[in-house]
Write a structure and sequence with these properties.
Elements (H helix, E strand, L loop, with lengths): L4 E3 H14 L5 E7 L2 E7 L7 H9 L8 E5 L9 H10 L2 E5 L8 E4 L10 E2 L10
Parallel strand pairs: 1-3, 1-7, 4-5
Antiparallel strand pairs: 2-3, 2-4, 5-6
Helix pairs in contact: 2-3
The structure holds zinc ion.
């Protein structure tokens, strides 16, 4: 399934959760509907270090996802080495969100950690699913 973008509501949800988790980080896996990223599976509990959040994502092997989302406590949204290892294993699209958690403080990466375009789409959707 080719990913054509992320639903605006889903992105706003991600930014909101990232902001309310700060200074702790939050991580989750993204799921798509008809090629649009619409759902986030949030990891239960967040850890205070990026490394731990990423390692927790490695421990969710049975969930089908198009990629990962996690937040950084700073404005630096460059993936770490651990992030890129995770990217290679969990899908094709990976979002990192950083402070100040607004519509410009995130980037999407591919499985190799290269920045890629992810259009924000206005689509109707149900409330993001929280497991
Ligand atoms: Zn990271």
């Amino acid at each position: 399934m080719k990913i054509i973008g992320i639903a605006r509501e889903t992105l706003e949800f991600i930014l909101h959760v990232s902001e309310s988790s700060a200074p702790n980080e939050f991580a989750g896996l993204m799921q798509q509907t008809d090629g649009v990223i619409t759902d986030i599976i949030i990891l239960p509990g967040t850890e205070s270090s990026d490394r731990n959040a990423v390692i927790k994502l490695f421990m969710m092997p049975n969930i089908k996802s198009v990629g990962s989302i996690h937040s950084h406590p700073t404005s630096n949204v460059t993936p770490s080495k651990a992030d890129i290892r995770l990217f290679g294993k969990t899908g094709s699209h990976h979002i990192i969100v950083g402070a100040p958690y607004d519509e410009n403080s995130w980037k999407c990466y591919d499985g190799d950690g290269q920045v890629q375009d992810l259009p924000v789409l206005d689509v109707e959707l149900e409330e993001p699913e929280i497991l």
